[in-house]
Automatic annotation (TrEMBL):
One of its GO terms (biological process) is L-leucine catabolic process. Its EC number is 4.1.3.4. Pathway: Metabolic intermediate metabolism; (S)-3-hydroxy-3-methylglutaryl-CoA degradation; acetoacetate from (S)-3-hydroxy-3-methylglutaryl-CoA: step 1/1. The lineage of its organism: Bacteria, Pseudomonadati, Pseudomonadota, Gammaproteobacteria, Pseudomonadales. Belongs to the HMG-CoA lyase family. InterPro entries: Aldolase_TIM (IPR013785), HMG_CoA_lyase_AS (IPR000138), HMGL (IPR043594), PYR_CT (IPR000891). It catalyses: (3S)-3-hydroxy-3-methylglutaryl-CoA = acetoacetate + acetyl-CoA. The keyword Lyase applies. Residues 7-274 form the Pyruvate carboxyltransferase domain. Keywords: Lyase, Metal-binding. Pfam families: HMGL-like. GO terms for molecular function: hydroxymethylglutaryl-CoA lyase activity; metal ion binding. This is hydroxymethylglutaryl-CoA lyase.
């Protein structure tokens, strides 16, 4: 199969990457991260979440972050909104694109958003309606597509059923999340084969955490299935508050390196992206999760 000629990266570092950090991170540092990512040439940055601050305290300042970032024309700056309360807060903050998030496993849905899968989908219907009325695009997420921290194996058909509902209610794209990073290349191909029977592949995205070191292999497997949108996190930041032990998303720098090696060019400046990752890692006092960034720091390549 021929690989896609163009790939879009959805940078989730400021949201998925930072949401799990225990230490307080100032608004100025979050703003600087988003601005650095814009400067590096990312076309899509997920900036924050309008969720309960009791559930995810780190995202509490998202409105202030939106107010202070330098938005570049042509770049999408998005936020997660789990319900109408979040959607309205996002609109008040001037957000132009939002994402709703469901799960393919009942246990994860309960732990993450305190309701069943069916209840979550019902909650999203008014969000999609309000978004449509305002001309706001909505992206959909499905978590636990290749395994659940509470239930183990998740059937691709279950993922397909949730993804189908999100697409049918108006999500323009559905991102399939390997929340705990247990997926393998073989399972990834099967997943997109099954979900791709209901939803056009150019409306699907892959979101791979790298807990088992399989994320790049899973992205390559997805490319072979015709998937051309991938979520990634600068410096491999992150983890999920409701999936203990899950590591961050695949590092954006490493995905860029993979794509470049395949002759798929994104226009993103790798050096600037590495610098953005190094800076936020220094702020957080943590190791850089990007293998490419670490190699370049040591003078490799
Ligand atoms: C969904 C809720 C709110 C339900 O939480 P709930 O407690 O069931 O909500 P509720 O409607 O009963 O309201 C209870 C309180 O929450 C408040 N509330 C209610 N809604 C909001 C809101 N939007 N913004 C701010 N506050 C809100 C509401 O005002 C009230 O406040 P109180 O009267 O107690 O002071 C909660 O469970 C929640 O916020 N969960 C956060 C989940 C989250 O952010 N998880 C991480 C993101 S998902 C992810 O990382 C996976 C992904 C996308 O990356 C893909 C992958 O890797 O799998």
């Amino acid at each position: 199969m021929t690989l896609p000629q163009h790939v879009r990266l959805v940078e989730v570092g400021p949201r998925d990457g930072l949401q799990n950090e225990k230490q307080p991170i100032g608004v100025a540092d979050k703003v600087r991260l988003v601005d650095d990512l814009t400067a590096a040439g990312l076309e899509y940055v997920e900036v924050g979440s309008f969720v309960s601050p009791k559930w995810v305290p780190q995202m509490a300042g998202s409105a202030e972050v939106f107010a202070q970032i330098r938005q570049k024309s042509g770049v999408t700056y998005a936020a997660l909104t789990p319900n109408m309360q979040g959607f309205e807060a996002a609109m008040a903050a001037g957000v132009k694109e939002v994402a709703v998030f469901a799960a393919a496993s009942e246990s994860f849905s309960q732990r993450n958003i305190n309701c069943s899968i069916a209840e979550s989908l019902a909650r999203f219907v008014p969000v999609l309606g309000a978004a449509r009325a305002r001309g706001v695009r909505v992206r959909g997420y499905v978590s636990c597509v290749l395994g659940c921290p509470y239930e183990g194996e998740v059937a691709p058909q279950q993922v397909a059923s949730v993804a189908r509902e999100l697409f049918a209610m108006g999500c323009y794209e559905v991102s399939l999340g390997d929340t705990i990073g247990t997926g393998t290349a073989g399972k990834t191909r099967t997943l997109f084969d099954v979900v791709g029977r209901d939803i056009p592949r150019d409306r699907l995205a892959g979101h791979f955490h790298d807990t088992y070191g399989q994320a790049l292999a899973n992205i390559y497997a997805s490319l072979l299935e015709g998937i051309a949108v991938f979520d990634s996190s600068v410096a491999g930041l992150g983890g999920c508050p409701y999936a203990k032990g899950a590591s961050g998303n695949v590092a954006s720098e490493d995905v860029l390196y993979l794509l470049d090696g395949l002759g798929i060019h994104t226009g993103i400046d790798l050096q600037a992206l590495i610098a953005a990752g190094e800076r936020i890692c220094a702020v957080l006092g943590r190791d850089n999760g990007s293998r490419v960034a670490r190699a370049r720091r040591l003078g490799g390549g």
